[in-house]
From TrEMBL:
<dbReference type="GO" id="GO:0003677">
    <property type="term" value="F:DNA binding"/>
</dbReference>
<dbReference type="InterPro" id="IPR010982">
    <property type="entry name" value="Lambda_DNA-bd_dom_sf"/>
</dbReference>
<dbReference type="InterPro" id="IPR001387">
    <property type="entry name" value="Cro/C1-type_HTH"/>
</dbReference>
<dbReference type="Pfam" id="PF13560">
    <property type="entry name" value="HTH_31"/>
</dbReference>
<protein>
    <recommendedName>
        <fullName>HTH cro/C1-type domain-containing protein</fullName>
    </recommendedName>
</protein>
<feature type="domain" description="HTH cro/C1-type">
    <location>
        <begin position="18"/>
        <end position="73"/>
    </location>
</feature>
Length: 123
């Protein structure tokens, strides 16, 4: 099954939204760094300025910390993640890799709902 080509997202909008989400939760940049295991606060400022893209595991962790979904981060209604995988097996292997490389690692099976769909990390 061929997947659709991903949309482009505005990094400045994403950065602004990340900053607003952090402030809404009452978190300092230092607290976010501690949660993410990031040594430099400047890294968070780069993300919030839209000057750098957070790696997917960092972005997912920030979304969890901020209780945010993709629409909250992108600012786009009905935002969806689209990937270029050629098969569902490639998609599953990528999601398994996310679980293995999480800090701490997470069991893939623990990230699935009752229908077997990936729902994210439960921390």
């Amino acid at each position: 099954m061929k997947k659709e080509i991903r949309p482009d997202y505005d990094l400045k909008v994403i950065g602004k939204n990340l900053r607003e989400l952090r402030k809404k939760k009452g978190l300092s940049v230092e607290e976010v760094c501690q949660y993410l295991g990031i040594a430099s606060e400047r890294t968070i400022y780069y993300y919030e300025a839209g000057e750098r893209v957070a790696p997917f595991d960092v972005m997912f962790a920030m979304m969890e910390l901020y209780d945010a979904d993709l629409e909250d981060v992108t600012g786009e209604k009905n935002a969806k993640l689209f990937y270029l995988w050629r098969t569902d097996e490639e998609c599953e292997e990528w999601l398994r890799m996310i679980c293995r490389t999480a800090n701490p690692p997470v069991k893939y099976e623990d990230c699935l709902n009752e229908e077997g769909k990936f729902i994210g990390f439960n921390r």
